[in-house]
């Protein structure tokens, strides 16, 4: 049973949170300008296609084309104090070589039409070279189980070591294809409406194999060497244990599509002051298994489950302090408790939110420098946290520049670093249903860095 449970965790990698900025599911790092500024909810630039669609009417008439890419490196460290594990520290690497966004805007008079494409969720590959604590804790109990085996079952069998081979890789990406129409109702007010088509793909490819133990058994393993647990249990006629430690493989692709309705409002109450609002409605997303291998028997081909994208409310204020200097603040609220995550949403105590501030200063006609800070506050309870799916409070600093290459071509450069608060929980372990082994702490740590580059071309 223990290996079955381990591989179940493998296919829960959808919650592995590849995102850099945003809520538990949603990515909000949707432009190179965001990386260098971190406060974009009142944007009236091209990336307003995502952050503030109603603000696009402030652009001059013409066509706008923008592409950007981010390269993200994230490290996740899990420290588990269960004393029977071979190692207490497990490190996972999440690498996103390219995180692309593309935007197109057509603006004429009071109307702005826009298209946007980008990974609004996921976007990375997780590699756990040494597995995870939840993969090993039940394996680590094998020496205890055998050493405490009743005489009626042939015990006790002195055993002190184990080993297991883990091969695990999971990827997740939710592509968003977005269309918006914005209209200027009044010199002070504009509105927008649109929709985002979501195409979600998760892939999981992994195996748990070659479980070894070192029982001292006369005539079978008298020297107590590490031997194959599967072959040993078959030799001893312990078929139930042999089935438990048999190699397990999973090769699953999960896909689903959905549509997110979008509305926006932009208000300009006075010269130099801009207020942007956007609301993304809850996205009812179901993912379906396309299963090639399932050693657990728990992921039959064709079965689907709910993995909603929560509703999002974004609010931003931008103020022009001087012709060469402007500042902004933003807030983003994620309605996690309104999503359907097959009951997991009930473990959310408070909804996730972000607050940020950014500033830009124009050195000259060609170079604008920017700086931003962002605080992300998770609201999940300890019961939500696991080694593979945890949400942490964090603080981010970003900086960069916009460079005018020509009168019509602009380049954005940015970098940011995110510092996460540690998360932790107490986990109770049992040798069997009747025998507790005590409660031990599991600690979740994370850090990541992001580099971004973008190009914007204006055709008037």
Describe the structure concisely.
By secondary structure, the chain is mainly beta. It has 7 helices and 18 strands.
Largest sheet report? 14 strands, antiparallel, barrel
**Helical proportion, percent range:** 10-25%
- Poorly predicted runs of 5 or more residues: 1-16
Number of helices: 7
Structural class: mainly beta
Count of β-strands: 18
Distance between the termini: 65 Å
| Estimated share of beta-strand residues | over 45%
Query: Shape from CA axes?
Result: elongated
Helix and strand element order? HHHEEEHHEEEHHEEEEEEEEEEEE
Task: Using brief descriptors, characterize the structure shown.
mainly beta; about 450 residues; 14-stranded antiparallel barrel; disordered N terminus; 7 helices
Describe the structure.
The protein is mostly beta strands and 460 residues long. Helix 1 (2-10) packs antiparallel against helix 4 (133-140) and helix 6 (229-235) runs antiparallel to helix 7 (239-245). It has a 14-stranded antiparallel beta barrel. It has helices at residues 2-10, 32-37, 48-51, 133-140, 142-147, 229-235, 239-245; strands at 62-80, 89-108, 111-127, 162-186, 189-213, 227-228, 248-270, 273-280, 286-294, 304-306, 311-322, 325-335, 353-362, 367-377, 394-404, 409-420, 423-432, 435-459.
Annotate the secondary structure layout.
Elements: H1 2-10, H2 32-37, H3 48-51, E1 62-80, E2 89-108, E3 111-127, H4 133-140, H5 142-147, E4 162-186, E5 189-213, E6 227-228, H6 229-235, H7 239-245, E7 248-270, E8 273-280, E9 286-294, E10 304-306, E11 311-322, E12 325-335, E13 353-362, E14 367-377, E15 394-404, E16 409-420, E17 423-432, E18 435-459
Helix pairs in contact: 1-4, 6-7
């Amino acid at each position: 049973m223990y290996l079955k449970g381990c591989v179940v965790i493998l296919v829960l990698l959808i919650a592995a949170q590849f995102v850099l900025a945003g809520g538990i599911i949603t990515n909000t790092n949707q432009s190179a300008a965001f990386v260098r500024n971190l406060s974009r909810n009142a944007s009236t630039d091209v990336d307003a296609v995502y952050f503030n669609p109603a603000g696009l009417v402030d652009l001059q008439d013409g066509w706008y084309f923008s592409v950007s890419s981010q390269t993200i490196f994230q490290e996740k460290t899990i420290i588990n104090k269960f004393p029977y594990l071979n190692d207490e520290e497990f490190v996972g690497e999440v690498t996103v070589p390219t995180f692309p966004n593309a935007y197109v805007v057509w603006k004429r008079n009071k109307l702005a039409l826009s298209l946007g494409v980008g990974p609004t969720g996921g976007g990375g590959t997780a590699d756990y070279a040494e597995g995870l604590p939840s993969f090993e804790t039940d394996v680590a109990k094998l020496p205890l189980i055998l050493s405490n085996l009743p005489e009626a079952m042939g015990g006790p069998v002195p055993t002190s070591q184990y080993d297991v081979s883990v091969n695990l890789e999971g990827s997740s990406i939710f592509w968003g294809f977005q269309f918006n129409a914005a209209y200027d109702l009044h010199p002070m007010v504009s509105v927008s409406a649109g929709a985002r088509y979501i195409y979600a793909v998760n892939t999981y490819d992994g195996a748990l194999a070659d479980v070894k133990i070192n029982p001292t058994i006369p005539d079978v393993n008298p020297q107590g060497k590490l031997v194959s647990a599967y072959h040993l249990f078959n030799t001893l006629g312990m078929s139930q244990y042999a089935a438990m430690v048999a190699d397990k493989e999973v090769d699953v692709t999960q896909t689903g599509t959905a549509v997110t309705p979008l509305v926006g409002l932009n208000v300009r109450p006075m010269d130099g002051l801009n207020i942007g609002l956007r609301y993304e409605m809850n996205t009812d997303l179901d993912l379906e298994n396309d299963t090639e291998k399932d050693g657990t028997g728990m992921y039959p081909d064709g079965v689907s489950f709910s993995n909603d994208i929560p509703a999002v409310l974004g609010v931003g204020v931008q103020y022009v302090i001087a012709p060469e200097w402007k500042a902004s603040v933003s807030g983003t609220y994620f309605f996690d408790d309104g999503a359907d995550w097959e009951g997991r949403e009930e473990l959310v105590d408070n909804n996730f939110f972000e607050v940020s501030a950014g500033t830009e200063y124009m050195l000259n006609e060609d170079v604008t420098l920017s700086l931003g800070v962002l605080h992300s506050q998770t609201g999940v309870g300890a019961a939500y946290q696991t080694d593979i799916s945890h949400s942490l409070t964090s603080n981010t600093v970003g900086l960069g520049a916009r460079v005018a290459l020509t009168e019509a071509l602009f380049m954005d450069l940015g970098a940011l670093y995110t510092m996460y608060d540690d998360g932790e929980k107490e986990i109770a372990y049992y040798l069997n249903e009747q025998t507790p082994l005590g409660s031990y702490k599991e600690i979740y740590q994370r850090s990541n860095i992001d580099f971004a580059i973008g190009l914007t071309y204006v055709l008037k």
